[in-house]
Amino acid sequence: MEAALLGLLIVGGTVAFAMAALTLVRPFVRSRTGAFHNEVVIALYAGASVMYAVLLGFMVVVVWQAYDTAHRNVGDEAANLVALYRLTYGLEAKEGVQMRSLVRGYTNDVIVDEWPTFGKTTAGSNKTRKVLGDIDRLFATMDEKTKAADAQVDAEILQTKSAIVSERNIRLIEASDSIPWVIWLGAFGGAVIIIVMSCFIDMERAMAHYLMTGMMSSLIGLLLFIVVTLSQPFTGPLPISAKHFHQALDIMDDVDQGN
User: Which pTM does this prediction carry?
Assistant: First the structure.
């Protein structure tokens, strides 16, 4: 619902601005232009619109790639948690139980405690950070004979755990990252310039002029809405959810049942 309202605001506001600008500019243009007015204006408008199209198209591609990368990173983190959980069955019984408890605790803390911190802090949850430290401390206190017997399993667990730490750090960076204000200035300022320039094109039929300007401004508004929506993967109108971690907990239940 939030995304729909934002879309209505941006697209509707862009169209409303275009209609208002055309209503103010059109009478002036019709009464004070010369014979070659359109040739000059259209040439200038074409050049400006191409430059703006390149900027806006670049922004759409970049924010979509960033959004998709963030989504994939969350999926990889959840998948590595499941892999780590499976590997704990290669440890001694006591250490395996403790490790599985820590992995479950981390997964649950990400859902319950860390996800709500996005947009409020860049440090994430202290609980999840502590659990990662507890995993290291558990390894440090393991019997040397146990480590030697399960050396390959231990190495894989540490490697997987390191991947989870890295993916968590990337997730926190992506949750707090934002597009620089100068890019937003170019996106919205360029929209204003292109829309106003289109109003200076002299068309004999007012209805056709309003229709074409309305369609162009709605397209600009739609692309701006896409950029705004995807620019904040974790805190925007269409945030990435913690569903992958919920799925990881379900898979851990299946692993405990021997699946």
Answer: 0.85
